[in-house]
Amino acid sequence: MRELREVLRTVETKATQNFKVMAAKHLAGVLLHSLSEECYWSPLSHPLPEFMSKEENSFITQALRKPQLYEGDNLHCPKDNIEEALLLLLISESMATRDVVLSRAPEQEEDRAVSLRNAAAIYDLLSITLGRRGQYVMLSECLERAMKFAFGEFHLWYQVALSMVACGKSSYAVSLLRECVKLRPSDPTVPLMAAKLCIGSLHWLKEAQCFAMMVIQLGEEAGEFLSKGYLALGLTYSLQATDATLKSKQDELHRKALQTLERAQQLAPDDPQVILYVSLQLALVRQISSAMEQLQEALKVCKDDANALHLLALLFSAQKHYQHALDVINMAITEYPENFNLMFTKVKLEQILKGPEEALVTCRQMLRLWQTLYSFSQLGGLEKDGSLGEGLTLKKQSGMHLTLPDAHDADSGSQRASSIAASRLEEAMSELTVPSSVLKQGPMQLWTTLEQIWLQAAPGPPPSGLLCLLPVSSFPCSCLSFFLPPCPSAPPPESVRRALPGQEVGSPGPYSPGTCVA
């Protein structure tokens, strides 16, 4: 290592540039694969005692004349092996991409292949280095610079696509994966990745259906991924049924979804994920008993799976067994204490079994958990790191993602409990609500979760509902408040009546049944 470092510190000439690129790449590989962070020593310090003898014995001959080194007062010194490897690879990338052969003339084909192979090796090491630190945005920017000489090179195209997936740029990733399919049409993993993105964050169901059909059309060539292709197609049909407006169209798509998922189960009978989605599809078409049987088979394989336990609780609630459902949710929250979807369902069940006051206690716990997990001082760093997505696409929620079930109308809440809840929520809001200027920091998904927590507590008499909707109003362009169930008819308080001129007590307004507070 010391010899390689001294070589890299020398003032280079035109003849030694290629050699220094190879030396930098080799040293970066040593730092990443052969040296841990505990054994690292900086370039300006001496090696650890256990490495001192190895470093001294590694020199066979000494140079008769020492080369000129870079010296100065403001030279950067890396603090760990990852930082030094990243610095070396960024320097190597700038030198390698500058000298890469772009000509596609037949006589330069060999030189082009060599330069492309060297550049690809550097980008592979960059992917490892930046992936360790979660710097996926920076990785995607580096890989984008390689696209100028990546024509027809599947590996580089796929690397760029995966980096876009990691930093949350799903739409760009789908476009890149579409090109990867053209370069390697026999690889089933590429259209499966594209279908996953289209089903998940983008909600591009037509495109997801096309990508899933690509896998199915491969037939036996897809191997074990054929069942995944049918699974993706079944999920697409089910989501299309959720979005459909005509009852006949919904029934047709649900039938096709169930048939496709059952075909996936025939190809992979022991896959718990396939069994889980078959159970979920049966639940969506209200075949609760059959769904419970399928889910029991899935729970035999994955007893502690959060989605399976969540679906079990939802099936119990569909059968009006609310106490059993709450017991399952509490058990699941014990295993997954940071799962907000489980807590949303717990709020609904507590609202039915124990009343609104107990449900509001859980809402407050969710607010404190949100504050603990997503510290405001770290949101800017999270966004820059790109470790979280570019934002959550606001779309119609569906059961295929095992998210919050439909809200229940709270008709049995007492006025006293609601007034207590209003005071408690006002206190929680003053403690946990952040100014609108902070909302610009961090990924949108964090703030959407916070918004959903407030909206969970909003249904109820006007004072408490209004207090819960005040934080939601600070989220720009939010449509989630339109999905609130109607509040009971009641005259608004004097302070609210002054804020809403032109409304008479008892006249149709924001608090009348059949309207939504937005």
From TrEMBL:
Keywords: TPR repeat. It comes from the Eukaryota. The keyword Aminoacyl-tRNA synthetase does not apply. Residues 3-143 form the Tetratricopeptide repeat protein 7 N-terminal domain. Residues 493-518 are annotated as: Disordered. TPR repeats lie at residues 306-339. One of its GO terms (cellular component) is plasma membrane. The keyword Heme does not apply. GO terms for biological process: phosphatidylinositol phosphate biosynthetic process; protein localization to plasma membrane. InterPro entries: Endocytosis_PI4K-reg_protein, TPR-like_helical_dom_sf, TPR_rpt, TTC7_N. This is Tetratricopeptide repeat protein 7A isoform X6.
